[in-house]
Amino acid sequence: MSAEPREPTGAEPASRVNGEPTPSAQRAEANDVADNDPRDAAGPGPAAIPGGDRAAAAAELRHVRAARHAVPWRFAAWLGPDFGLVLAFTAVLAILVGAYGGNYKWKEGPIVISAGIAVGLCAVRFLYRWRSIAFGRGTARADYVAAARNILRDWGPIILIMWLFQSLETYTGVIRQTSIDDALFHADVAIFGVEPTVWLSSKGFPLLTDYFALAYGLYFIMPMILATSLSMRGRREDFREMTTAVVLQMGIGFFLFLMFPAGPPRYYDPLMHGPHGFDPPQLHSFFGLFELQQGAFDSADPVRTRSAFPSLHCSLALLTLIYSYRFGDAVFPRFPKLWFRIVLPFVVSLWISVVYLRHHWVVDIFAGLALGASANYLAPILRRRWPRAAPL
Measured in whole angstroms, how far is the alpha carbon of residue 110 from the centre of its chain? Predict the structure, then answer.
C-alpha cells in the first residue's frame, strides 16, 4: 500500500513532499534549465543536453553554483546590511589608527546608552523567568539563550557604530585641515541677510536656553525609546531597518566630515571676537542644564574635531520622526500615532536648538535633513537587495 502524502517538515525543504519535487518546484527547475546560458563558467547548460540527462545536469549545475557561492553568500546573509556596513567602517578606523595613531572613546553617552539598553533587555528577559531558567525547566534555558542572542545581534550594530563614530570623529580635523567655516558663514548670510546663530541667540533668555538644551539632548533618547519598544515586541525586521538607516547616516556623515571639515559657529573667530559677533558672548540657562551639557561638548578638541557639516543631530531627528510615524504603534499599540505626535514638537525644537545654541550653521541643517532623507530611502532598498540565507 502506498504511503499517504505528508506535509513538509522543518527537516525537508518546502519544495519537496515524500522526497519528490512539488509541481511548483518542478516549474522553477524547468525555468532554471531554460534560462541557463551555455557559456556559464560551470560548463554547457542542461538545455544543451538531450534526453533524460537534463535533470541530472540541472542538479549538477545547482550543486556547482551552491559550492561556489554558499560560504560568502551565507556569511553576508548572516551579517545583514547593518553589521556589514559596520564592518566596513571598522576597516576605515583601522586604517586611520595605523596612519594617525590610536584614539578610542568608550564612555560617550550614545555608547553607554545603547549598550545599557541591550544588557537591560537581556536582564529583564532573564528575571521574567529566572526560576525556570536557573533550574532548567522545559525549554526555558534554551529559549532565553536564543532570545539573548537575538537581542545582542540586533543591538550590536548600534553599539558598534556609536563607538566607531565617537572614535572616528576626532580624526575629522586631522586628515584635511582646511575647514569650510568661512563658506558656511557666508552662505548663511547670503540666504538670510544676517547670521542666524547671532540673531537667534540674541533673542534668548535663560529658561528658553534650558528648553533648547533639553531638546538638543533628546536627539538620541527619542530614537532609543522607539528602538527599545520594537525590540521588546519582537519586531526584528522593523528594528533592523531602522538601525540600517542609522548606520547609513552615521557612516555617510563621517565621510562628509572628512571631505568638508567644519567647526561650530561658537568656535568661529569673527563671531567670537568681531564687532557683529555673539551678543551676549556666552549663553546662560536658568537651571544650569545648558552649562552642564556644554561643558561635555567643549571638552572636545576644536582643532581635531571638525564635524559640523552635515548636522547628524538633525539627520537622526528626521529619521526619528519618519520611523515614529511608521512604527509608533510599537510604543503605544492602542494609539499608533501618539508617539509621533509626542516627538514632533521636540524634533522641530531640536532643529531650532542647533542654531540657537550655536552648534551648527543653518546650511548644516539643510545637509543633515538631506542625509536623513537619503538614509531613510536607501535602508529598505539595501535590506531588500542584501543576500538572504536560503536552503541549498
Answer: 13
Cell output for 43: 560548463
Q: DSSP secondary structure string, 279-343?
A: SSSS---SSSHHHHHHHHHTTS-TTT--B-SS-HHHHHHHHHHHHHHHHGGGT-TTSTTHHHHHH
Residue spans of the domains in the chain: they are 80-383
The long-range contacts involving 102-105, CB below 8 angstroms and separated by at least 24 positions, are 103/167, 103/170, 103/171, 104/163, 104/167, 105/163, 105/166, 105/167, 105/170
324, 347 Cβ separation under 8 angstroms: no
Place of cell 522526497: 19
Question: Which helix H or strand E contains 28, and what residues bound it?
Answer: helix 23-35
For residue 228 the three cell numbers come to 527599545
Angular region, 378: left φ>0, alpha ψ -120 to 50, beta rest: alpha
Q: Is the dihedral of CA 301, 305, 307, 313 positive or negative?
A: negative
Pick from 106, 206, 115: which is nearest to 155 by CA?
115
CA atoms within 13 A on the CB side of 7: 2
Helix (H, G, I), strand (E, B) or coil at 135: coil
Residue recorded with cell 586631522: 174
Give the 3-state secondary structure of residue 262: strand
Candidates 300, 316, 304; CA nearest to 242 is 316
Could you report the per-residue pLDDT of 321-330, keeping only the tens digit for each? 999 999 999 9
Query: Residue 298: beta bridge partners?
Result: none
Q: CA–CA separation, 375 vs 268, rounded Å?
A: 30
**pLDDT (tens digit per residue) in 283-299:** 999 999 998 887 666 65
Listed as ranges, residues in the chain with pLDDT below 70 are: 1-71, 102-105, 169, 173, 295-305, 389-392
Residue 21 host element (H or E) = strand 20-21
